[in-house]
Amino acid sequence: MANVGLLYVGAVLLINGLMLLGKVPTRAAAPLNLFVGALQCVTPTVLIIQAGSDGDAILAASGLYLFGFTYLYVGISNLAGLEPEGVGWFSFFVAGAALVYAGLSFWRDGDPVFGVIWLCWSLLWSLFFLVLGLGIARLTRFTGWTTTLLALPTCTLPAFLAMTGGYRSDGGLALIAAVVGVLLVALAALLAGRGRTPVRASAPAAPAAT
Fold it and tell me: Residue 184 maps to which CATH number?
């Protein structure tokens, strides 16, 4: 069930990345953020209710709220024309929590590939904090490109693999995932350097979920 939400998180990350790049108007991005945000809040609630006293299942579902709240926050902020600092500072919290979930994936769950994915998400939310929370405008294009390039590889692809029984996780695959992630971030830096940096991020935009 969680993988269904992850599938569409890839779409909203892509849209939000393009929004930061100025390719999608903020109000045009709001509906998808609201749709996916609602999905990423309903899904963990159902999973937690079904889990009963299963602590591992509850822990696995708990991370989904980080992203559900983010997307709802972004969608509402874009429609209401709110300042981006609120989303930015919430992203600081999400970035820190993502590091914890990454550690759990590596050392508790035996899923190093998803540990790498969590690290990618922590990087993304850290960038959202810097751009939206602290107003560091020179990072806007880099953040937009990083979000756009990481959207499908960290969300939609693993979701499809998991739903079709093709997902595998071991140290070798995690290393490959890490190398791909680094290359995509390097490409984002290259692409960002070719464009003009806006004066300030005009509206909140954020990714995620698992």
Answer: 1.25.40.600
Token digits of residue 28: 């045009």
pTM, whole model, 2 decimals? 0.90
Number of Cβ within a 10 Å radius of residue 30? 21
Domain assignment present for 199: no
Half-sphere exposure of 87 (CA within 13 A, CB side): 32
Q: In this structure, are residues 145 and 23 in contact, taking their beta carbons and an 8 Å threshold?
A: no
Which tokens sit at 86? Answer: 């609120």
Q: What is the pLDDT of residues 89-100, one digit of tens each?
A: 999 999 999 999
Nearest-angstrom CA–CA distance, 79 and 201: 16
pLDDT tens-digit readout, 92-129? 999 999 999 999 999 999 999 999 999 999 999 999 99
Could you tell me the residue range of the domain that residue 43 belongs to?
2-193
Enter the tokens of residue 129: 């904090």
Q: Are 29 and 78 in contact (CB under 8 A)?
A: yes
Q: Give which of 32, 27, 2, 31 is closest to 14, Cα–Cα.
A: 32
